[in-house]
Amino acid sequence: KKKNDKTKALDSESQIKKKTMPIKVLSSLDAARIQWYHFKAIIVAGMGLFTDAYDLFCIAPVMKMISHVYYHGDSINTAVLSTSYAIALLGTATGQLVFGYLGDRVGRRRVYGLCLVIMIISSFGCGFSVCTTRRSCVMVSLGFFRFILGLGIGGDYPLSATIMSEFANKRTRGAFIAAVFSMQGLGILVSSAMTMAVCVAFKRGGGGGLEEEVVPPEADVAWRLILMIGALPAALTFYWRMLMPETARYTALVENNIVQAAKDMERVMSITDYISDETTTETPPPPPPLPPSYTLFSLRFLRLHGRDLFAASVNWFLVDVVFYTSNLLLSQIFSHYSDIPSSSTAENVYDAAFRVAELGAIIAACSTIPGYWFTVYFIDKIGRVKIQIMGFFFMAVVYLVAGIPYTWYWSKHEQTKKGFMVLYGLVFFFSNFGPNTTTFIIPAELFPARFRSTCHGISGAAGKLGAIVGTVGFLWATKKADDGDDMNKVYPDVNRMRAAFLILGGVCIAGIFVTYFFTKETMGRSLEENEHEQERVNNDESEDEPQNVGRQSSASTLLQTQ
């Protein structure tokens, strides 16, 4: 009898150790010091977003070149132009939903590699778009490959954010995720620089000449080369991405394989001291609850996390309406305020693309990249919610200050050209030192591990829907016909520009209200604390309903009693 009692006691102790092991693994990640692997993960995960930005933002100068090669210098009609912008965004939204869901079902690591392969193949496919004579064939082929490219880009969004959030410690988690996202700024800059370099090389090689009306055949190779170069950064990181282990949180909390989670972490990070049972003399912390029984979009899920999903999705929708519309407005503002001849004047195919890329490089270097890195520095000091509200507020101020007096002041005073461009550049600074970055971070911190990638994908897809609304809506709203003939010029007049500024200012104000009333702060807390905060509130409210307390609460209570 004594022997049986001793055996039962050992078994009970063994079960307690097994159940307390997950909290040790997760606590070790939250308390781990900053290590080389964190920076390696930032680079490997960030290269995906680098490629995303390169491919999404190089399309503007590429379309400029295509208009010269296949449309003989005329503006591409609005239907084709809006479709070319929207097709990649639609693919991105689809990829965020599909691969975000698969990231929770199959595993982050497996789907992560698949997304990278899709991006590499489709980037080359865009360059090899079939046909060199019929423009309809070229545009359909380019649209197909850009949609496939969007699928890979979309999948990279939720997986990069989720992987980085699950690897990082809780003190610097926001900075690490922001650093991954900041690679977008570098991607925009490199995209513009590479476009300018290709244009200069082809022009000096004899392709451009000085005859604006004659488009050299080499120009058809130039835009394809620009698109294919976007595959190189992703291809260079493919090997290291395949070596990344599955995140410990997914392995421990979703696959329930605690031993493998500890082994994976010990293989890449120095956390042995944190999880060694033999060396600790402290009382074991209470174990984490068993996986919840509710499913995605169940009533319990919506009660616990519906508000967070609503806030993340709406904020991302609003900021992408502003961000993508601002990028389209930028080229029109630059054409209006610069001393460059208007679009009616014939220009060299390489010069046309060079000017668009040059503008992108200036904005990236002076506004976009500084905004990203301000967020990296302040995100874990100020907090996500404050930065998001601040960004929306200052963008709204810029749009209203520029929009309200636009008709009678900005459009008439020549001496204010540079001042207006500086003022408009602040939009991109506060977009990235604000909601454009925080909307990427917050969904990766709020939701349970088994829904994290899916919910991030849903939020991101809502954002890309906003990007489509902003991009397509702007192109059609500013479409202008001359004497009934659809010339499809997208250079807005003064009144339309003023209206666009005021609408975007209103969108930013809406973002302030949604953030203030619905978005929760996640700074300084572990992912599990963020995940279970609402569950604790819900459990407190239902203490007098014992029949609704599930297996999860009973198991935790029993183990703590033992």
Write the topology of this structure.
Blueprint: H1 2-31, H2 36-57, H3 59-70, H4 78-105, H5 108-127, H6 135-167, H7 173-207, H8 219-229, H9 231-236, H10 238-243, H11 248-254, H12 258-268, H13 272-275, H14 299-337, H15 349-382, H16 384-403, H17 406-410, H18 417-432, H19 435-441, H20 443-446, H21 452-477, E1 480-482, E2 485-489, H22 494-518, H23 527-541, H24 551-561
Antiparallel strand pairs: 1-2
Helix pairs in contact: 1-12, 2-6, 2-7, 3-8, 3-15, 4-5, 4-6, 4-21, 5-6, 5-8, 6-7, 6-21, 7-8, 7-15, 7-19, 11-12, 14-18, 14-19, 14-21, 14-22, 15-16, 15-18, 16-18, 16-19, 16-22
Describe this structure in words.
The protein is an all-alpha fold. It has helices at residues 2-31, 36-57, 59-70, 78-105, 108-127, 135-167, 173-207, 219-229, 231-236, 238-243, 248-254, 258-268, 272-275, 299-337, 349-382, 384-403, 406-410, 417-432, 435-441, 443-446, 452-477, 494-518, 527-541, 551-561, and strands at residues 480-482, 485-489. Strands 1-2 form a two-stranded antiparallel sheet. Strand 1 (480-482) and strand 2 form a beta hairpin. It is globular and about 70 Å long.
